[in-house]
Amino acid sequence: MGERIQIRYGDELIEVEIRRRDRATLEIAVEPDATVVATAPMGATQEAIAEKIRRRARWVLRQQRFFSQYLPRTPERQYVAAETHLYLGRQYRLKIVQHIQAKVRLERGFIVVQTHRPSEVDATRELLVAWYRERARERFAARIENCISRFADPEAFRPKALIIRQLSQRWGSMSPSGRLVLNIRLIEAPVDAVDYVVTHELCHLAEPHHGPRFFDLLERVMPDWEKRKARLERILA
Fold this sequence. Notes:
Helix content: 25-40%
CATH topology of the largest domain: Zincin-like
Order of helices and strands: EEEEHHEEEEHEEEHHH
CATH architecture of the largest domain: 2-Layer Sandwich
CATH superfamily of the largest domain: Metalloproteases ("zincins"), catalytic domain
């Protein structure tokens, strides 16, 4: 277990993880899982760290509330005929048809799953997940190109790689090496909400933590990010 402290602010108790670094200043960040991290000089006392966090407590609690709503809530899918599924913000009914060729396609308000095993839920699930993944890779790559153009120096914000995964606790992440990870469920969201998540993560290439400078950058490149975020949460709740 690393170094941790607790700070009381009114009725709230803020738990803080302290990370010691060879640096001159103290940085406070709230991570996407609502963890509070204080990156502190090697010689900083816990009392000094706690005092600075008390001064920033309102901001810390506001960011924790922000990220508590940011976590995706995955509904249980049954993968049966007539079930509703989302694609790029629109609702489609699932149609399962017996066919010698396994294939998924969009057709007049339906996601049509062709399968030679129409009664097997696992077969339908595998085909649909593969189709979503293929669409996600194509669409997300296009949105990255669109989003990097928001920055003054686009190439400085180009990720080194795109990885698509099933994530349980966040919509995306950016690794220290510049690898962008996006939740496959984002393919269900409207394009403007996808752009919000992509832009949010691209900002981490310049600002790794969710401190004031991070949100200043996000505000500059996407002034309506809060509206987009709210739409994402509303549609994929």
